[in-house]
Amino acid sequence: MRKLRIRLRVKLLMSFLVVILLSLSAVGIAFYTISARQLEQSTENQMTQIVNNAVHHTNLYLSSYQRSMVALLSNLSVKKYIDLPSDREEYENYRYMTDIRDSIVDPVWIRNPEISALYIIGYNGNALYYFNGGTEPSFAPKDTAEQIEYFKSHTDESGRLTIINHTIQGENAAPMLTLIRRIRGLSSSDMKGFVGIEVKSEELSTLWKGIDLGEDSYFFIVDDKGRIQYHTDPSKVGKMISGKLTDEMTQAGTSMFRSSAEGSKRAYISRKADYSGWNLVVSIPNSQLVKPLETTRMLIWIVAALTFFCALFLANRFGKSVTNPIRSLMKGMSQTEKGNWEFIPLPKRHDEITELIVRYNLMVNRLSELVDIVYQSELKNREMQAERQKAEFQSLQLQINPHFLYNTLETVVCYAVIQDSDEISEIVGALSYMLHYSVRTNLEEITVANELKHVMYFMVIINHRIGRTFEIDMRVSPDLLLRKMVRLTLQPLVENVFQHAFRYGVEDHHTIIIDAGEEEDGFWVSVEDNGCGMTHERLEELRAKLSENRLADDEEEGRLKGGIGVANVHRRIQLVFGEEYGLTVESSLEQGTKMIMRMPRSAVDNHTKGAANASSKPELLPPGFAGNERFVAGWITQQ
Q1: 0.85 exceeded by pTM
Q2: Could you write out the DSSP letters of every residue in 369-419?
Q3: Most buried residue, 29, 88, 103, 164, by most Cβ within 10 Å?
Q4: Is 484 helix (H, G, I), strand (E, B) or coil?
């Protein structure tokens, strides 16, 4: 038996080592190869996307200025002004300047407030200059002539938009980008002058300041002459790039290339903007590109070594864990023959494991018997618990104080003796309905409409008892009338108002409001009055009793005089819907009390509900409720 245990442990150890070495080798080689390819492709895609986005936004930015120039090119006043002779009258020049400013220039300032200057210059020396804030320089005819010569040599003769680093505002002005193109006059198709817009260079550079490529990586823009117009390092703006780098960018086109033109080996990728003809270039150190690969390679070696030694240790421990516990289990199984769930077939060989299985199978019969006994016992306990809960609920529902019924019968007798009126029929009818509604002791859930109907019949009797008509303000929305709630929970709260809130009698200013609404995971029904309210101590005492989740028994402060206790209502809601629901109380002394019943929201099928509740729908509303328009509308909806 000892030789068998040693062979099994060695065999397990060797098998584990072979599997581990093969797995680590295959995974390491495949992971490194795929990672290297994916990282390089991902870096190139990232750089390409950055440059493409920068080019796209630059073109969109410049196209907005192009549209402003189109408005100038197509304006008749501009074309007429270009055709004016050089010996024009000063008034004529002023008139055109004012007209063009009002019709074109001012709207351009509104659309593009970042434009610094706008000017129209004719070959014959006519020139209009507009400046957006700041000091406006003045130009002599000589200055205008120099500008005309400069623009003739730096613009496209066909009238195509040209972007140059130039400004007419002098050397002290901020760096500007000038967007300029030639314009035809009204009298002929020949080019007669220029239309130009100047924008501060910093306005354009804001498009690219947010680009972050990592440490020692940067983004720069080069014009068609090789001059840097924007760089993450401000000290390099305005300098020329090397001719070698320019040639390599031209040869690479839109592909990524590596170069040492800036002293260290770096990766570059560039795109040319449509409007400006500038190259937008991203540069990343080559060491940054290969660093993830080196890190990955080192990590693979470290993880492989750690995994190998950990696997070697675990394999050895696992071999021992398979063989060493067998003899201990053989001794212990004879004392634990009480439990498992199925038989295990015996193998053909005979060793420690076989002996363990034999003893295991001896326990299966006992386990099945014990499990069956425990299951039957648990099932019996659950049935007893359900019966106990049902009995408790029925007991709670039947706890109706007959005091109200005695008072009602006494009122009926008095009316019968004193006068012969329909009031007796009204009271007896309401009492009959309430008795019929109250004696139902089943655990079914009824609707808000049923409870409101019960309250209305209750109010018929109350109005005769107090000798005046008192109407309840029912604000329940019609779409909530078919929500489920517990029987005999709303009327006791209303009765409580007359017993406690209006303890000195009902006055003209007294009101009772019944409202309902939906919450995120349920709905609520509230009864609010403007009666005497409760002190803070009395309110806390009542809340404490509700938190105990039990009936108040015979304690009068926990019960509703003449009805069902507050704790009773609270507990019955919990028994039906769960401990998270029930009754909450809000009250202020001399300001009134609000009792809120919270219940879960339940889906209502109008078709099935209509059939199920057909027998409980009244034909007519009880007297005294004709003025409640919202509830009447809901009652009609229920019908």
Answers
A1: no
A2: HHHHHHHHHHHHHHHHHHHHHHHHHHHHHT---THHHHHHHHHHHHHHHH-
A3: 164
A4: strand
